[in-house]
Amino acid sequence: MEDSLKLEQQLCFPLYAVSRQITQVYKPLLDDLDITYPQYLALMVLWESGKQTVNQIGEKLLLDSGTLTPLLKRLEQKELVRRKRSAIDERIVEIALTSSGIKLKKKAACIPVKMFEQLGISMKEAEALKNISHKILNQINNHSK
């Protein structure tokens, strides 16, 4: 029973540590673009899907609007996105890329390749890790509803 409380027996610790370390590997690449990792994630949603509401971005990134709003305000200050209240419902805030935000996608295109090179795992291993991670996220999200 006591062994179950050893750090080396925990699944949560290596997941936590890997997440932190991967974010640190991203940092110099994102510093060159003058954005943070959470800002990068929000921009990826917009690059992929185009204009989105704050809630839509939050659903995709598993973030609440209280976390997302300051992040999006900073992106707006950097003139990468434009925030606008919906004409249909003023409670809804729509987020769209500016021309600078669209141009940044081209500069960011090399990041996934550079990251993959630094991780030192095969494509097959990366895909397996991603699938297991999604399985865990789905399980947790289904239980929290």
From TrEMBL:
It is found in: Cytoplasm. The keyword Transferase does not apply. Keywords: Cytoplasm, DNA-binding, Transcription, Transcription regulation. Transmembrane segments: none annotated. Residues 8-138 form the HTH marR-type domain. One of its GO terms (molecular function) is DNA-binding transcription factor activity. InterPro entries: HTH_MarR-typ, MarR/SlyA-like, Transc_reg_Sar_Rot_HTH, WH-like_DNA-bd_sf, WH_DNA-bd_sf. The keyword Cytoplasm applies. It comes from the Bacteria. GO terms for biological process: response to stress. GO terms for cellular component: cytoplasm. PANTHER family: ORGANIC HYDROPEROXIDE RESISTANCE TRANSCRIPTIONAL REGULATOR, TRANSCRIPTIONAL REGULATOR, MARR FAMILY. This is DNA-binding transcriptional regulator, MarR family.
